[in-house]
Amino acid sequence: METKSEALFERAQKVIPGGVNSPVRAFRSVGRHPLFIERAEGQYIYDADGNRYTDYVGSWGPMILGHKAPVVQEAVLKALEGGLSFGAPTEREVLIAELITQHVPGVEMIRMVNSGTEAVMSAVRAARGFTGRSKIIKFEGCYHGHSDGMLVKAGSGVMTAGIPDSLGVPGGCAADTLTAVYNDLDSVEQLFQQHRGDVAAVILEPVAANMGVVLPKEGFLQKLRNMCDTNGALLIFDEVITGFRLAFGGAQEYFGVQADLVTYGKIIGGGMPVGAYGGRREIMETVAPLGGVYQAGTLSGNPVAMAAGLAQLRFLLDNPQVYGQIEQSCAYLVEGLQKAAAEAEVPLTVHQIGSLACLFFTGSPVDDYGSAKSSDTKRFARYFNAMLTRGHYFAPSQFEAIFLGYAHTKEDLDRTIQDARGVMKTI
Ligand SMILES: Cc1ncc(COP(=O)(O)O)c(C=O)c1O
Ligand SMILES: N[C@H](C=O)CCC(=O)O
């Protein structure tokens, strides 16, 4: 009998491209229809058929405290009473900007936008405006949203679908995007040499979490910092996934490397649509109305989104034990899954950092886009489907991250590990 999710997907495909509003959700690479989600609570999501799943996606990061975290929920309900949008400044925007600038290294000013895509697009524009240069170096397999210039050898859904560069991006937009190999400083140096004096910025995910999770090699980030300084280019950390997750100060704090500009996304909205970019005051002062870099947004700093974000960030700041707990949970889960794979003689390369992890279905080391792509995606799909059937909701692609949150319990993790022990023997 057809499930409600299947029926909804059939209807959706008639009126929404691919039936979804963001491609990864279509579950294409794992060969099945997506689940349509009805509600979520804590560490669980419930589909339209009433099935419960332990959620290891957490809306791709923002649900670090779990779904419907009371502190966020209450703040949103209270904010709703005041109205949904004013298109005018509110105190909450000041409060969240003060909180971030006081506690995140190097972020002296910050501007709210509505998504990670917008945050990156705006930061790149600010970098170009500030330096008067046009070229941007990005890394293969890093995903920075879907603005034209960033859809070059991108990760996430683009990588999952095997689309190296998107149709519809004019050659001129992509011509200023240079791509280097993650963890390969020589490839960056070569680009600096070839385009001497033209590189405005190097942008990267300090931990790449959109080609699976790929860790920066020892010293990689610091050496990039030095290289940018030598070449008069800015360093942009895209912390849409790592920000407020690896530590309150994100990867900058975790690795002790300071970027010139940082971009944030979903996590600072507690699940509401938010992004932000910030950094050194002199760069941010080039943004309108102070300077000549134009960037705007009718719904930017939305009062309800700001209330949710503020509540989540305050909780994280006041409860630093969250970071220790989610890191421990993640390590525990990953160790269990790794053992399950070893028992079944399934070759696996496992990466974990803080509350982010990835199981690459390959026995070879993974440190860049090329090696990530060598994973056995068909085996991943079998693993994914078998785990889903048993009530464990992981991201539906080999090239996405596992996200742990504060609501996951040891019982949840044990159940997942126990099921994985059976599943690994069948894939
Ligand atoms: C590192 C990174 N940058 C940018 C984005 C784009 O964010 P959004 O999907 O909110 O536009 C994402 C996620 O999608 C991301 O993971
Ligand atoms: N990898 C993306 C976010 O970090 C996945 C979200 C999406 O594209 O829908």
TrEMBL record:
Its cofactor is pyridoxal 5'-phosphate. InterPro entries: 4pyrrol_synth_GluAld_NH2Trfase, Aminotrans_3, Aminotrans_3_PPA_site, PyrdxlP-dep_Trfase, PyrdxlP-dep_Trfase_major, PyrdxlP-dep_Trfase_small. SUPFAM superfamilies: PLP-dependent transferases. It is found in: Cytoplasm. The keyword 4Fe-4S does not apply. CDD domains: OAT_like. This is Glutamate-1-semialdehyde 2,1-aminomutase.
